[in-house]
Specification:
The chain has about 300 residues and is α/β, with parallel strands linked by helices. It has eleven helices and nine strands. Helix 4 links the parallel strand 5 and strand 6. The mean pLDDT is about 90.
Length: about 300
């Protein structure tokens, strides 16, 4: 509700600044956590909590707070990272904050988890909230453990499991794909017919804001843009957002997977060619949520923001 104070962790990441601005626009007072003292964005309070790998006294940050949006965590940092560190930051720190929020009388705790808590890939029917979790890496297991811990607390909590998020400021494989499309070179991806669910940043922030106060939101939800897209169709859509065409060569995916494996890029290629779709209709029916932006609108905003950064 307008005027209530919301604590946002992870406000310095990819999603965080957009969540902060959406909450301010909705009339909330926003307080963010910071590792060290720094000037916060205009109109935003800040409190220094230190590193999430350490024990934190959450009482000062939670004083006067009505709701929490917990975005902070250890993201994909590559193979070989100690699984215990993932659990400490993504699971234990989440539960410490949740327990402190309960003691402080916080109304709603929104935890931004990940689709990786459910699965890393799935070539079957679209995943929904009732699908049995089968995370395949330390990151996903730590996110699932945090969700399971929240379920054991006497707390009004929501967990969102976003699929691949894109939007202004996106990095990683999505940004690399945009750079390749921008060069206009032929890409050997014309025969890729996989299915992937995505979620535009504006749609995710809208879902987070809704879950702060919706009385039926408690539990786990899978927000997405809606209709899945293949990698080849995504490339064409990115090119259209750039006002250009996308020359695609139909090379058989098994051949590209074999070549990528020889180059030590098998895992990245599997993500590029694999399937992972979710069914967001339960969230839409139960909460009356409709993604406010189409994929075409999201890609246009992403491309324009990326062009300004170059």
């Amino acid at each position: 509700m307008s005027g209530e104070r919301v604590l946002v962790t992870g406000a310095g990441g990819f999603v965080g600044p957009h969540v902060v601005q959406a909450l301010l626009a909705a009339g909330y007072r926003v307080r963010i956590t910071q590792r060290s003292a720094a000037e916060p964005p205009p109109g935003v309070e800040a409190v220094v909590t230190g590193d999430f790998a350490a024990l934190i006294d959450w009482a000062p940050a939670l004083a006067g707070v009505a709701h929490v949006v917990h975005l902070a965590g250890l993201a994909h940092a590559g193979p070989g990272l100690d699984e215990a560190l993932y659990r400490q930051i993504n699971m234990q720190a989440t539960l410490d904050l949740a327990q402190a929020a309960y003691r402080a009388g916080v109304g709603r705790f929104v935890f931004v988890s990940s689709i990786k808590a459910l699965s890393g890939a799935s070539d079957g029917p679209p995943l929904d909230e009732d699908a049995p979790p089968a995370p395949d890496d330390a990151y996903g297991r730590s996110k699932l453990a945090a969700e399971q811990g929240l379920a054991g607390l006497d707390l009004d909590w929501v967990a969102l499991r976003p699929v691949l998020v894109y939007g202004p400021g996106v990095k990683g494989n999505f940004a690399s794909l945009m750079r390749l499309v921008a060069r206009g070179l032929p890409l050997p991806l014309g025969a890729v017919r996989n299915r992937r669910s995505l979620v535009y940043l504006g749609n995710l922030t809208d879902a987070i804001a809704l879950c702060l106060t919706h009385p039926q939101a408690r539990g786990v939800w899978l927000p997405s843009d809606g209709t899945p897209v293949s990698t080849s169709a995504l490339i064409r859509a990115i090119a259209a957002a750039m006002g250009r065409s996308a020359p695609l060569i139909p090379v058989p995916p098994p051949l590209m997977l074999f070549a990528a494996g020889l180059l030590g890029k098998g895992a990245s290629a599997a993500r590029l060619f694999g399937d992972l779709t979710v069914d967001s209709s339960p969230m839409m029916r139960a909460l009356g949520w409709t993604p406010p932006f189409t994929m075409a609108e999201g890609l246009k905003a992403t491309v324009q923001a990326n062009a300004r950064r170059v």
